[in-house]
Amino acid sequence: MPDQLAEFQKDVTDVQNSLAAVSKSQAEMGKRLAALESKAGTDDTVKRSEIADLKARLDTIVRQTTATADKVDLVNARVDRLSQDVEAARDAARRQTAPAPVPSGGPDVDTAALAAGATVAGATRPAGAAPASGGSAPSPSALYASAYADFSKGNYPLAVSGFEEYAQRYPDTELADNAMYWIGECHFSQGSYKAAIDAFDAMLEKYPKSDKAAAANLKKALAFVQLNQIGQGIEQLRFVTSTYPGTDEARIAADRLQALGKP
User: Fold this and answer.
1) Whole-model pTM above 0.70?
2) CA-CA distance, 199 to 167, in Å (whole number)?
3) What pLDDT, on the 0 to 100 scale, is given for residue 59?
4) Where are the domains of the chain?
């Protein structure tokens, strides 16, 4: 897993380099366009069609910039999830050699869920599967851990099923809003952007003060952009920057607005 983490981090660097190259091309194209427009005012030999063609190429570069920046976020998310998996595996190993009760406060939310999944590996049912005949319902920690493990592995349909079951069975727990958030993330990762928006809306409506609210609103904005609903995407990005100033989500939203030419 450390080798995988290093590989993902290399992916992040490669995509960031691509983003820098595209941004440089965008800046150069903008300068050329400005120069042509200035020349067109005094030189009739400059064809309007050439300017129109350059504008179209500039629009394409803007879209490429946004798409590349989205890839940066996706690879970063993969690195974060893998880091959590590594910590969870280490926690599980420590517990096996020196068992100790979990403090009442509990460790970090999703790391705790993965750690719980590690300790019950082979004993819990797949997320979304029905309990065995005559058996009891799964514990909250086991159900959440199973669903989150499926999400980390890219088993999105199973993860959605598990998170939906968790949200329905345990709506008053601290992880209920997280479960609904990850449903949206699963749909987003599958390219089902409309379903992702619906899932984030459902989570925000039920848990408006969730610590995942900023992330959910940002992902809504990115989903709108992916659906080519640029106007709604820009409006949503501006909502994130104004509502959650100083957060990573606000910074990412500001970067997207800059890439779309709407700072």
Assistant:
1) no
2) 12
3) 65
4) 1-100
